[in-house]
């Protein structure tokens, strides 16, 4: 079995947008290096000053060096039939595989990560950074942050790992069923092994325990492992591989509950790698207030978190359509509802559809009675129901609660509980913040699964 110990220097951290400036490959036959090859590479792009400061490689040094495409065939021949080894292997492998693919070569090697292997075979060290690890193991490391120096030290490190591997961790890592080759360098296999095959929400955490990504899953183990499969060169995946140190999870009874919990947890923790749901927010809402003449006025405005609203909308068109329906059915004044402006009297008054509140002909007491009827009607339109579904175990069922068109909360109750005792049921649930995204998830699910829905009858809640 032959190994290719590899180290590269690059212009940045993402393969798809950056180039390789230097590469070193040490071919090992067992514990012995039998061949070496290294070269500066012209990345065909500017080397940032901070990279130059780190590696010492500048634009002048690579100006006459071969481009990657010019040495791609030789690199492929050296690597394609070897075990690919590097310190934080997924970084080097992703870069080389990406740039080989641009030159028409497909690299599919088994991989070994000396960071992961060192954590397993040399546990308890203060750091597994290559420089500090070499110091701890008395390995000579010259020309730090240059491909040749780092690759030579990594080859010595790998030889020590082979000698220390009395329990055959390395051979097991190379087995087809093993996940060791694709896991992030700082993530213990134990975190994967303990993941259940149930619906739920998972949390990627960095070295300090900060949540950097939240996701939901029908099958927690399968979904988490999918993040580490393949060889994507995207920036987000590279950040995962570099920063994930541990994984937490919450089991949910259903995928719906996982979706809801994911949305609430993203809004709570705002992880840096979650983008789609972080951008979600209610955009418009229907508000009421009393003007200086005592008239209750309804109007659509941008959603304000601190102001109680009667209804919320994703688009201003939806809001105006609902408001116009209330105006028509309850003979409200278009001007007092801000549908019309710059008029003395609204057009509804001209056609006998408004009693003249806009002109002061109808007093506020009479007008406000109809506005309150419209508000009460709106509240009655808002659905109140419970969705019962499977729980986390066979002894319980899940419950998702919608009240007056807003998500109240969710939880789990015993199959022996009286599901007709709504007050008892509600007290057993965990309250969560509501938003249109979550409500729409639940409404859609209830519509597609009517047999799981049970209606609740409530008096309109006070806003």
UniProtKB/TrEMBL annotation:
A Pfam family reported for this protein in Swiss-Prot or TrEMBL: GIY-YIG
GO molecular function: 3'-5' exonuclease activity; DNA binding; DNA-directed DNA polymerase activity
Coiled-coil annotated spans: none
GO terms, biological process: DNA replication proofreading; nucleotide-excision repair
GO CC annotation, single: cytosol
Gene3D superfamilies, sorted: GIY-YIG endonuclease (3.40.1440.10), Ribonuclease H-like superfamily/Ribonuclease H (3.30.420.10)
PROSITE patterns: GIY_YIG
UniProt keywords, alphabetically: Exonuclease, Hydrolase, Nuclease
InterPro entries reported in the protein's UniProt record: DnaQ, GIY-YIG_endonuc, GIY-YIG_endonuc_sf, GIY-YIG_UvrC_Cho, Ribonucl_H, RNaseH-like_sf, RNaseH_sf
Domain GIY-YIG residue range list: 197-275
NCBIfam families: dnaq
Record's subunit section: DNA polymerase III contains a core (composed of alpha, epsilon and theta chains) that associates with a tau subunit. This core dimerizes to form the POLIII' complex. PolIII' associates with the gamma complex (composed of gamma, delta, delta', psi and chi chains) and with the beta chain to form the complete DNA polymerase III complex.
Function: DNA polymerase III is a complex, multichain enzyme responsible for most of the replicative synthesis in bacteria. The epsilon subunit contain the editing function and is a proofreading 3'-5' exonuclease.
This protein's name: Exonuclease
